[in-house]
Design a protein that fits this description.
The protein is mainly alpha-helical. The chain is built from 14 helices and no strands. The protein has three domains: about 150 residues, no CATH class; about 90 residues, no CATH class; about 55 residues, no CATH class. It is globular.
């Protein structure tokens, strides 16, 4: 029997070729179907997150449709409150734009004087150089702006579909469960249920941990900006905290606006430097203390895999991919861990062997007390 199974196995180079073509086909489908797949993926993750709350409301006697609608209404209400607070701060921030423009012109004059004194380039030569390169700058900037606007328009259109998809996924969840029962043999139903429960746990811990991390980072940002003396600290702090949803680079991107604001609105370079240093401290705390301890080991994949997921997601689905591919990779790891043939790949995605728990510091004294009693 073993000899027959061995004879049915393909050579390793054919297996590698098949896997390579499968990956190429997968990424091709992901790219051409991004408009449809992105909102469906968001809806799938949100449905896993909202499922326990829906079950809780249904246990109180609410019909399934009404329970799902109530969950979505709660989420929309929370998001509306958050964005309303951000909008109010944006209105307050816009009052400083004329002053920022005036200050920006002064900084440009100072920069021109510095270039003239350092590199012996007169203002006329600087203007000529700008005129020569302005066309290429405008083309590049226009293309970037056009790409950003198109991406934002597409993303906003997709956001409107996410609640609809989430509603129907939760409404017909028994249909999806029945589909899996029919795909897999009866002997594997228990294993499939276990994998689904683990995936649900991973997503719930990821989203709850992400919300907690964003809240902690927002508080740290606001405290630092208030201590430094930067106006609109709440707006800058919350905006930068929300950008932590984009792993590794989110806080850095979020720090740019308060740094430029401090540079334009203060008379000392110490303010933008202090803002930059504080955001570096926050980023270090987020990466080494907050996220590892809040999110927990259930969703931990090693930093190299997370960075690759971030880069691949950004290249395939843009900003949405940078947000989605990390939890999707954690879900794939759960599947790998539960399939014996794929378990080595699950280990490759993990952080290695779990660290041994340190011995309880009270254990020595407990042993000592126990020894005294026996004596």
């Amino acid at each position: 029997m073993n000899e027959k199974n061995e004879s049915n196995k393909l050579p390793w180079h054919l297996n590698a070729t098949a896997v390579l073509f499968g990956l190429i086909l997968l990424f091709y489908v992901l790219e051409i179907g991004a408009t449809i797949l992105i909102p469906i993926t968001f809806a799938f993750i949100f449905s896993l997150f909202l499922y326990p709350l829906c079950r809780k409301l249904e246990s109180y006697g609410l019909p399934r449709g009404l329970a799902i609608f109530s969950c979505l209404l709660i989420v929309v209400g929370i998001l509306y409150l958050v964005f309303w607070l951000i909008y109010e701060n944006i209105v307050s921030f816009s009052a400083d734009l004329p002053r920022m423009q005036e200050r920006g012109q002064e900084l440009v004059s100072v920069l021109q004087k510095f270039i003239e004194d350092t590199f012996k380039l007169t203002s006329e030569k600087q203007i000529d150089w700008l005129r020569q390169n302005l066309r290429s700058f405008a083309n590049t900037g226009g293309q970037m702006l056009n790409g950003i606007l198109n991406g934002m328009t597409t993303f906003l259109a997709q956001i409107l579909l996410i609640p609809v998809y989430t509603f129907f996924m939760l409404l017909y969840r028994q249909v999806f469960k029945g589909f899996l029962d029919r795909v897999f043999d009866i002997a594997h139903h228990e294993k499939v249920g276990l994998v689904l429960n683990q995936i649900q746990t991973v997503i719930q811990k990821y989203i709850v941990g992400l919300i907690t991390v964003v809240s902690i980072i927002a508080v740290l940002n606001i405290i630092g900006l208030v201590a430094i003396g930067i106006k609109h600290a709440v707006f800058f702090g919350v905006l930068a905290a929300f950008l932590t949803i984009i792993p590794y680079v989110g806080i850095f991107i979020g720090s740019m606006l308060p740094i430029f604001y401090a540079l334009a609105m203060t008379d000392s370079l110490l303010y933008p430097l202090a803002v930059f240093l504080w955001f570096q401290v926050v980023q270090m705390l987020e990466g080494n203390v907050v996220t590892p301890n809040v999110v927990g080991s259930q969703v931990s994949i090693n930093p190299l895999v997370a960075m690759l997921a971030l880069l691949v997601g950004g290249s395939v689905w843009g900003i949405a991919g940078m947000i989605l591919f990390v939890p999707l990779t954690a879900m794939v790891k759960v599947i790998f861990d539960n399939v014996p043939e794929l378990a080595p790949f699950g280990f490759l995605l993990s952080e290695g062997e779990p660290k041994a728990k340190p011995e309880n510091p009270n254990s020595f004294w407990k042993k000592l007390v126990f020894w005294k009693r026996n004596k």
